[in-house]
Write a structure and sequence with these properties.
Largest sheet: 3 strands, antiparallel
Structural class: alpha+beta
Number of strands: 5
Shape: globular
Number of helices: 5
Radius of gyration: 15 Å
């Protein structure tokens, strides 16, 4: 498994993957590790993430290979359909998956999303509009939603 890092306004993005696709994108605090060549199979991901944070990209075109249960993968695939700049509720996401009673399972799968940002779990909010739950911290979720709605233009770096 290859690894590459990118400094973002929200911390250090760590991208992990191989020829089969991106398996993990996580966000971390701290300092960027010493410069290493970006592995060829991760170059598109690093470029697309950079473009996103520079306001030049609203969607990702990458081969993904997240590891999870079949149900989790269904949830993550549905997350990818939520457009840039939009949010939907956990209840709406459950309905889109065919079972609004599965809201807790859908929320749990959303929380286990291993591909931060590219699978946009930050676009899922509470039915009342609240920013509930986010593995990367609610401040990052708020930042991403505001950024995608145009509220942070000109204040990226």
């Amino acid at each position: 498994m290859s690894v590459a890092y990118l400094q973002t306004p929200l911390g250090i993005a760590c991208v992990e993957g191989d020829a089969e696709g991106i398996q993990v994108v996580s966000i971390k605090e701290g300092e960027l590790p010493p410069a290493q060549p970006i592995p060829e199979e991760l170059t598109p991901a690093i470029h697309q993430l950079s473009d996103y944070f520079n306001g030049q990209r609203t969607s990702f075109d990458l081969r993904l290979n997240p590891q999870g249960t079949d149900f989790q993968k269904r949830v993550w695939e549905e997350l990818r359909k939520v457009p840039f700049g939009r949010t939907v509720s956990y209840l709406e996401l459950s309905r889109r998956l065919g079972d609004e009673k599965a809201i807790r399972a859908v929320a749990a799968a959303n929380g286990k999303n291993p591909v931060w940002l590219i699978i946009p779990c930050h676009r899922i909010i509470g039915t009342d509009g609240s920013l509930t739950g986010y593995a990367g911290g609610l401040w990052r979720k708020k930042w991403l939603i505001e950024f995608e709605k145009g509220g942070l233009q000109g204040s990226l770096f």
